Amino acid sequence: MSRIDGHPVGHVALTRPGDREDAVEIMAQRGMPVERSAVVARLFVLPAARGRGVGGELMRTVAVAASDLSLIPILEVLAKDRAALRLYEDRGWEPIGETTHRHGSRSYSAVALRGPSAGGGSEW
């Protein structure tokens, strides 16, 4: 959780993958160590706090936590959310494949990404 002046303004979670994580399936297809995957979820920043570095700090925090646990952080972003994709790629996240995000009866194109390795490079 991120705070400004003692008030919560953002949050991010790092969790073990569920049974139907498309990013994990993509990892398996690419020969990546699925057992080391961790899903970055619930990233949000209050609108009033945006543009103040909160999102970047939350992503750095989750990357360090994953590294400390020898885990590979993964996430999915809707393909239409170009600003979010740029944010992640600018911070060393690498697209690993395309998937479909389902919400109720609707489906949306999404991109699966993996976070930078503990050593700062993209190799695991």
UniProtKB/TrEMBL annotation:
Entry-linked InterPro entries: Acyl_CoA_acyltransferase (IPR016181), Bact_Acetyltransf (IPR050832), GNAT_dom (IPR000182)
Annotated transmembrane regions: none
Domain N-acetyltransferase intervals: 1-115
Region listing for Disordered, in residue ranges: 96-124
Protein name: GNAT family N-acetyltransferase
Gene3D superfamilies, alphabetized: 3.40.630.30
Domain of life: Bacteria
Originating species: Janibacter indicus
Keywords: Acyltransferase, Transferase
Single Gene Ontology MF annotation: acyltransferase activity, transferring groups other than amino-acyl groups
